[in-house]
Amino acid sequence: MAELRRTSELRQVELTDAALRIVATKGIAALTTRSLAAEVGLSTGAIFRHFASIDALLDAVVERVEAVLEATFPSAELPPVERLAHFIEARSSAVGNQLGILRLVLSEQFLLALPRRGSARLAACVEKTRMFVIECLREGQAEGSLRADLPAETLAPIVMGTVQMLALSPSRARQREADARAVMGSLLAILRSPAAVSRSKRKGTS
Predict the structure, then answer these.
(1) CA separation for the pair 12, 4 (Å, rounded)
(2) Which residues pair with 85 in a beta bridge?
(3) How far is CA 205 from CA 50, 131, 186, 199, in A?
(4) pTM of the entire structure?
């Protein structure tokens, strides 16, 4: 029974990932039991063995998005700049591999097409991300490692836009990770405080 349950759970993940691919390439209006069955090579009847309805499938898609995004938040014990860097690399890689996630959380049209509860959950994901970035920036400003001449709320869209740009890169996963590290260097150069830059240069010459 436990093995059967695991097999069913794996199939559900496969189906939700396939649903996200359809959303990414064709839009949410194209997500039907027929298109999903064709995507994974199953019959429509087999789909309903795992999901009772299309709304149940969409709920599972939202849950999958939540799980993928949640896994990109690094440990709160890391210093703020390191925490921010880990987040950008992890989030851009995860979302880049599942572009349907980006389509769902950024498109008002897609959000409206979801059941109301699902839209609210995805909106909460976006807000949690925004607050995470702002908190990292504020902590970095407080310790003097990040520039404090601009509010964290003003800098946060730059960070979040960087994640979106990296996620949308046509590069393959490994190259995307390398791109993320390179872009992070430039982003941190913009975000770092002059005092932190000076300290870093002194350490480099000592």
Answers:
(1) 12
(2) none
(3) 61, 37, 21, 10
(4) 0.81
